[in-house]
Design a protein that fits this description.
Blueprint lengths: L3 H19 L6 H47 L1 H5 L7 H14 L5 E4 L6 E6 L2 E7 L9 E8 L2 E6 L1 H9 L1
Parallel strand pairs: 3-5
Antiparallel strand pairs: 1-2, 1-4, 2-3, 4-5
Length: 168
């Protein structure tokens, strides 16, 4: 009966970890309780059965947890638990978008909305979300695309537009 308590705690702890991965990923409470239960079972084994019994229990628990992780990975449950979508996945599409945006470099257009510093401009009959270098640009002002960095198009107010606004 003495062996039942640590083994039960370890098995219930591993089962709760499996539930965390398969049923409620992201909640963490179930997984933490499971890990604490398994750790408590190992600690009880150290106290009840000494160093050798505790190390044996720890080794068996680590092997069981590794086997559980292997089973979860093979079953596909791990995919729901771990973020598999790479943040770099957009980079696979990015070269096409960058290529089409690179054609905008040096082109002029006009601000459809006030740019404070972000807003919308029209360049070559296309509406584009842009950012200025920090300066406010009024709606209707002429702007030039000066840089393209990843998904960001940087514009600057045209000098002719600035001169006409200061003269008026």
């Amino acid at each position: 009966m003495e062996l039942f308590v640590p083994v039960a705690l370890i098995l219930v702890g591993l089962a709760l970890i499996a539930v965390e991965v398969t049923v409620v990923p992201g909640l963490n409470v179930v997984g933490v309780v499971g890990a604490l239960g398994a750790a408590t079972g190992v600690a009880i084994a150290f106290v009840e059965y000494g160093l050798l019994g505790g190390l044996g229990t720890l080794g068996a628990t680590v092997l069981a947890a590794g086997g559980l992780a292997f089973l979860l990975r093979d079953s596909g449950a791990w995919d729901r638990f771990v973020l598999t979508t790479s943040l770099l996945a957009g980079d696979a599409v990015e070269p096409e978008a960058t290529e089409s945006r690179s054609k905008l470099l040096g082109r002029t257009g006009h601000a459809l909305t006030p740019l404070r510093p972000a807003g919308v401009v029209e360049v070559d009959d296309a509406r584009i979300e842009v950012v200025t270098e920090g300066a406010f640009v009024a709606a209707g002002s002429r702007v030039r695309v000066v840089a393209i960095a990843r998904r960001r198009v940087l514009v600057r107010m045209e000098e002719a537009s600035v001169a006409s606004e200061s003269a008026g």
